[in-house]
Amino acid sequence: MPASVPLPIQRTASGWQLPGIANLHSHAFQRAMAGLAERQTDPADSFWTWRETMYRMAARFDPDALHAVASQLYVEMLEAGYTSVCEFHYLHHAPDGRPYATPTAMSDALVAAARDTGIRLTLLPVLYMTGGFDGRPLGERQRRFGNDVDGYLRLFEALHAQSDELLRVGCALHSLRAVPEAAMRAVLAALPPDVPIHIHIAEQVGEVQDCLAMRELRPVEWLVRNVRVDARWTLVHATHLNDGEVRDIAGAGATVAICPTTEANLGDGLFRLREYLDAGGAWGIGSDSHVSVSPVEELRWLEYGQRLATRRRNIAVAPDSPGVGTTLLRGVLASRAQATGFDRLEGDLVVLDADAPALAAAHAGDVAERWIFAGNVPMVRDVHVAGRQVVADGRHPRRGEIAARYAATVQALLRD
Question: How far is Cα 377 from Cα 371, in angstroms, rounded to an integer?
C-alpha cells in the first residue's frame, strides 16, 4: 500500500473501522515463558543465554500443552487487533527427538488452536538440520526440532494438503546456520511456486561474524547471491545490514518481519528502518517471543527505537504521508498478503471504540496516530476474520475457558 494510497479507515455505527493486522512472526510456545527470562544468569546475558531458558521450556511441551498455550495467545492476538498470524513452528517431535505416532501432532495442535479461536493461520513448519555454520549436529535439546530433507517435505506435504480459507502452509528455513546449502536448494526446488518462504536472518552480530568466517559473505549477501529471493520471501529480523543488503532486500521485493519488542528484549539491535523505507522496502511486524502481544506496542517501539538512535522525532514518514501512525499502518497492511500467503483479506477488520477518550474528536486523518501513540488503554472493540465476528466489545467469546485451560497448563509446565 504505497503512501499515496489513502489508508482505509472509516467511521461506522460501531466505531472506527480499519483492516486487520498481520502478525508475521510467532513462536507460540514462548508465550508461556514471557517474564521468566528476566533474571540475570550471566554478567554478559544475551540472546545466547536467553536461549538456554527457551530450550528448557520447549522440552516440556507436548501437543496438548501447545494447543492450550497457542489458544490463549491467539485470543490475545485477536483482542489486540491481529487477524492473522504466521507461526514459525519447529517443535516437531517429542522432547527426545522421536517422532510422534502422528508426525503432524504438534502442527495439528496449532491448527486446532487457530480454528478454535478464529484467527487466520499461516503455518510455517521449520527445516532445522544443523547446530551451526560448521555443520555440527543438533544438540540434545535441539533434537525435537530436526528433520532431514525427505522427512521435512513429507511433513510439509501433509500439512499443505489441509490449506483452506483460514489456513495457509508455507516453508520456514530456520536460519543459514541451521540449514545447509544443499538442503536449502533441494527443499526450495520441491516447493509449490506460490507458498510463502520465511527465514531468520542477521538477527545477531555473532551470526553475521560466523557467516563471514565460513562463507565469506554476510548472511543477506549470501542469500541473495545464492537463491532467488523474491516477493515470496519474508526475512525475519534482518537487524544487522549494510547499505548493499538494505538495497538488495528492497529490490528483491521481499518483506522484512521486524519484531521490535522481542528484538529489544533480547538486546538484538535496531533495524535500519529509515534507509529501508527510502529504498522502498516492504515490511511488517511480528511479536515473535510474545513478551508483548500488541500491534500498537510493536509499531510504537519500532518508531521510538529509531528516535532514540537518531535523537530525532517522526522518523517513519513519507513526503505525502507525514503522520507516523498512518505511515506505519500503511506499511503493515501493504505486506500482509504476500507474507501470509492469503490473497483475499477483505473480511479481516478491526473496529476501534469511537467512545474511547483517546479518540475524542478524532477524524480519519488522525485515528492511526491516536491509536498507536495515545497510551496503553485498549481501544479495540470488535474484530472480524473472513467476515465472521470473533471479538465483541473487546472480548473473545471463549476467553474464560481458554484462559482457565492456559493457567492449568502453565502451572503444570512450571511444576518442576
Answer: 9
pLDDT in tens, 157-186: 999 999 999 999 999 999 999 999 999 999
Distance CA(264)–CA(259), nearest Å, equals: 8
- Domain 10-413 classification at class level: alpha beta
Closest CA to 30 of 59, 60, 58: 58
Read off the C-alpha cell for 95.
522432547
Residue % of the chain over a pLDDT of 90: 95
Tens digits of residue pLDDT in 224-272: 999 999 999 999 999 999 999 999 999 999 999 999 999 999 999 999 9
Bridge partner residues of 351 (DSSP): 17, 382
CA-angle at 363, arms to 76 and 343, nearest 5°? 50
Q: In 3D, which of 292, 360, 303, 387 has the Cα closest to residue 80? A: 292
The answer to whether the beta carbons of residues 284 and 302 sit under 8 Å apart is no
Length of the chain: 416
The answer to whether residue 24 scores a pLDDT higher than 90 is: yes
Residue 254: closest CA among 209, 200, 210, 197: 197
Place of cell 505511515: 327
Provide the mean pLDDT of the chain: 96
Residue 244 in 3-state DSSP?
Answer: helix
Query: For residue 48, what pLDDT band results from cuts at 50, 70 and 90?
Result: confident
Pick from 103, 127, 256, 133: nearest CA to 188: 127
**Helix orientation angle between 219-226 and 243-252, rounded to the nearest 10 degrees:** 40
Residues 309, 314: Cα–Cα separation, whole Å: 12
What is the set of active-site residues? 237, 288
Q: Which three cell numbers stand for residue 401?
A: 475457558
Q: Where are the domains of the chain?
A: 10-413
CA distance 385 to 393: 15
Q: How far apart are CA 104 and CA 112, in angstroms?
A: 12
User: Quick check: helix, strand or coil at residue 346?
Assistant: coil
Within 8 A by CB and 6+ apart from 101, the residues are none
